[in-house]
Write the structure tokens for this entry.
Amino acid sequence: MFTRIVRRVVAFALSALAAAVLAFLLLAVLPGDVARAQLGIDASDADVARLRAQLGLDRPLLVRLGDWLGGLLHGDLGTSYATQTPVAPQVLDAAQVTLILVLAGLLVAWAIALVLGTLAGMRPHRPEGVVAGLVAQVGISVPSFLAGLLLVIVFAVRLGWLPAGGWTAPADGVSDFLAHLALPALALGLVHGSVLARWLRGSVRDVAHEDFLRTARAVGLTAGQAMWRHGMRSALVPVIAASGVEFASLVIGAVVIEQVFVIPGLGSLLLRAVGTRDLAMIQAIVLVVVVLVLLVNLLVDVLQAIVDPRLRERA
């Protein structure tokens, strides 16, 4: 198991390095002149050349790549082309907000998946199982932004229970923080919880026919007791793997949810950077998002090895 973890860590480091190189090169070769976009089409060639030199864009591409990778080793994500301020503090502040939102959405997704997936898998032909399967199917087909708007209309506008938007940091008050987090997390988790529920439904139905569950029922346990005590651990293995994929989708969905609820996360920061053609900011955001996704997939691999003894035996 230790060897498996070491291999995953090495693969994570190499993937993060490749992502950093690709993020820089792909954005660096985009058509258009950043300096011309900053100054406007009426700027003189001399002013554009002066700004290019100031931003370091007149240097060879490989030299700029080397400087950027060297800065990453010291935690320097570059300097914003638009504001001439360090990128790292802005990106890390926004990343904290997005990470909180995504993790909260993942918790909501898991809660929904455990309820709907277990019911649909264990009771596929009973009314409650059929209803759970239908709810999961409807949840998959509803876009997260539409779910967010509906939640705002019901819980913020009609009932007035929760705020319609905005963000409060945990340090400014836990109750306000949870109130502002509830609707965005629910909107983000509904769709992905329905996807995970479909995975769990199929996994529960497969595990329900295993011999060890028949033995558990033969000694007096009910079907539900046998599943929760002995079968759920095996049923969750493919769902844990799917959660790594869904995390990337949650990050992408958070970009939309942040716009619906006016949350100052990576999505809002990315849209502003695109509007001002701030390539340094865009590069840093892309790299942070990719590293987060790679890190979660690393954790998923480790968690799978802990949960599934077959992977430990194979290692």
Residues 2-87 form one domain.
